[in-house]
Amino acid sequence: MAPMEHEPTYIALKESCEKIDRRNTRYQFDLEKDVKWSSIRESGEYFGRSLLEAFGLKAQAYHRFPEAHNLMQWSFAMATCKEFAALEEVVLRFTDREESHLGPTRSVRLLEEEEKKHIALFRRYEEYLRTLMPEECERFDNLTKEPAKLLEILDCREKYPNAATHHFLFWLGTVFFEEYTVYLYEKLSEESSLIQPAWLSAHYTHWREEVQHVMTDAYHIAALNLSEEERYTWSRVFFTWLEENYEQFAGFHVPIQMIQEKYPELAEQLGEPSFVETPFFQDICQGPGFRQTRKASPCIPDLLKQKTEQGKTKSSTPTGRFSIAQAIISSPPPQEAPQPEESVPDRVRKAIAANPNAGIVFVQDDGTETFERYKDLWTRAEITLAGLRKLGCRKGDSVILQLRRNEDFLGCL
Q1: Among the ranges 112-116, 263-267, 278-282, 392-396, which has the highest mean pLDDT value?
Q2: How far apart are CA 226 and CA 230, in angstroms?
Q3: What are phi and psi of 85, to 5 degrees?
Q4: C-alpha distances in angstroms, 42 versus 45, 195, 196, 200, 361?
Q5: Residues 75, 257: contact at Cβ < 8 Å?
Q6: Which residues contact 399 (CB under 8 A, 6 or more apart)?
Q7: Which residues, including other chains, have CB under 8 Å from residue 299's CB and lie 6 or more apart?
Q8: Are 117 and 85 in contact (CB under 8 A)?
Q9: What is the pLDDT of residues 143-168, one digit of tens each?
Q10: In terms of pLDDT, which residue wins out, 58 or 25?
């Protein structure tokens, strides 16, 4: 069970952090001296072909249309700067607000100092980028008025049943983001001769400190007062969110929308990437760049298994998704309660026991089919039930369901 609010959020956090608190700071960068600001007007790409293709974007199609390609490069770089600064502001708000749980550790103090520098770095680069395409800035600003969805999952403590759950989602989201920034630089460096020099140096200096932040995140995750089952459930919630908000997290939702509006003839050629079909998803699950994310996420082996089964059934959407957000972000599954003999839940349990890969096929409005295992349906139902109970619902209460997908209805039922 997750800890109640009077129980400790962490177990021996200070002792756990002693090793990283002793780190030297030779890795730190100087914002003025180490970033190649003098090269900022030189030519070059902001994102190479290998990185775009890892995200599932059709890089070759962009290259055939130079104006669209330039707009994509510019708006993607703008969105990256804006998102990086915003997420690092969330880190500062969290460490300030949660100081009573985190305690006075040197690793957190260094994290705060370095995040302030990162915010200054990306805000400064964004200001320069604005001078390159001033005619596009108003449209870009309109498309980025709403904060990134990741901010909601990291920055809303009241949505979680207790501090330990909130801290787990915060640190998991943060370690994933920071491993992503490391991944981003390493992908850029693979094509360094093509990348704009100041942009590459900005990500290199950022990488130097983010590698250290990854370890700070990992040590905090390890010390949290949560069971393995709870870590499985809440990491599953995080990856469900990531799947549903992939384009916004990666920052290319804005470039795609701007190009579709300005060059509608390209929309069909460019397409929209499916998260679980991208090389990026494969890198998260198996590549060297996301080790700490995987270590913190017991659900990842099941995600890979579902992807394999999805491929076999030619499903149009990934299995095991839950989109009843308020219920999900309320509580992990409760302990199993006894059911009347031969109830519907009993029958589902028997089906799971008899054949763990058995499931149900949903037919979508467009005629495509989506397969879901009973095991995953059961998990969704438990999480929904726990969330509804947390919101005050009890047996016999009437509940109005407003659902977009028939899969969600069956999970509620």
Answers
A1: 112-116
A2: 6
A3: -65, -45
A4: 10, 10, 7, 12, 54
A5: no
A6: 388, 393, 412
A7: 232, 233, 235, 236, 239
A8: no
A9: 988 766 666 667 777 778 889 999 99
A10: 25
